[in-house]
Amino acid sequence: MDGIDENRPSEATNTPQDAPDAEYRGSDAKGWEWKYLRAKCKLLGLEQYYQRYLERFSVVIVALFLFVMELLLLTHIVVLLVLIDSKTNFISDTLRYIALMLMLPFVVYICFLDRSVLKRYMLWNMLASAAAILLICLMDTLIVFFASPTDYFNISCAHDHICIIALYLLLPIGNLRSNFVYVLAVVVYVIYLVYITLIVYRTKHFTPTYIFAYGIYTFTLHTLMVVRLKIMEYRLRKKLLSRHQLLLQHHVLQMVMGQEKDMIQTVLPQQIAHSLQEEIRNRIEDQRLGPRHLIPRSLFLELHPDVSILMGDMVNYTQLTTTLDVKDLVQILHELFVSFDLAAERNNVLRVKFLGDAYECVSGTYNYSPRHAKNCVELALDMINTIAAMRENRKLNIDMRIGVHSGEVFAGIIGRTKWQYDIWSIDVDIAQRLEQYGKPGYVHVSNKTLVLLNRKYVYELHENPKIKMDVILEKAHITTYLIGPQQTRTINVQTTRGARMSKESLDSRRFSMKHEIRSKTRRGMYDEVEQMPVGRSQFACIFDLSRQSQTRNEDQLFKAYITSFWRLFRNSEHEWSFLKMPDIFIKYSLLMASFTGFMIYINIVIIR
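-> structure tokens emitted (608 positions)
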């Protein structure tokens, strides 16, 4: 059985736009009524999965119906063989029941066919169900017109209650959500009521009050079966809604974890990112075990022997803090650093940190490239152009002083309660000094960096007496140069307006994420429905012919935890915890028990 392959949900399936946000919460259900669950399933687009499960379930219950009926008929034939002396009655009754045993499988055979085979799947299943029930009814009741009154109690086998139970619970017509089941129930009710009435009036064994008592009994049985049908619908819809929410939460969690992983890997080298994720898992395990089990973790450090370091600082920042409002100052810094981050990403440079007006970057640790020196210089020129554009637009007296040096660094994460990624080395200290002795609007580079640039930029020697007086620079034999704005360079300035992520783009991204989650959840629900166990008996393994159920049915997955026949947890503690869970239907169960008891009392009074 291929199920709903032809109707398998795709990304174009029409579902409510807010479906991913329409989570199923039991506390929202007013009394957890089945009508609420039905409306919720429609809202979330789960009706096709509900119908698919009913198709699988119908195959199992029809098989169970056949098994029960064949067993009952065979048992009745054996009873007739033992108890009836009249060969005539025995032969006629035996032939009748053998004919019924042979005809029933042919009548309900169509219920085993898949939807892809039958064009009018629901219609044929309703007709087959009606034919099976009416066939049993007629085999039971028509004999009253051919047998003598003295033989009624020899031939009566009381299949009426079997027909009523099968009509609601063991045939597809009860699961197809069609009002035809109630029409057929009335027909069965009338047939057997007429049958009993004829027996009463043609014999002297019962009074007419027996007809009224029998009518009350069958009416009570019909009512109980209708309630049972609603309970089954409730449990199935609740199961589907729960699985839908679990799938939804799973895909949301997977997307968040993916975004977290991408974010970590964009700000950290790959090796340290993996170590950090392992540390997060260890921290979670420490919290689970308690404070006594806190284990000191190793220090995350990596040596990168060939990188370039960029140090930037805003000129006249102190003046801005005294002349601008704090809110305006923060807005300016935000726009600048957003533009710097975009330029760093574009030039394959990793921003390490910023502190106040200082900006620190490194190239060559994350996604190593032999062009790390050129990347830093390109970023520095972009930063100078960006701040020049802001100076022009906002009429501010600001500029950037930037130093770039190439060498080696140790990169890693320090701290336990609050992590900090940073870089350390003598070359980092040299880059800081280049920034301090630099010239606003220029990139101050060392001779080591200039060699790596292959003379592709226009530069000039930087004559600054403070450089010669610096012990560290003198000891490292550092000669410095200034690289200014390049005339042949294509200026790629991220403007203030472009740096801001608009609300429309955020809304579009959120909608795209919701659409992706919704699509994955729909595809996942198809597999979930195909793997869900059908019923409580082993007929599911025999007659459930869907492809996934043969290899990945949940009955096989949970076999180690749940008994096959009684459907109980093998672990007694789990079973006891399950039994202690509140029963939502207890009020309905008590109501139906009271109703049944009252109807039995009326029957007793009438018969007496």
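The radius of gyration is 40 Å.
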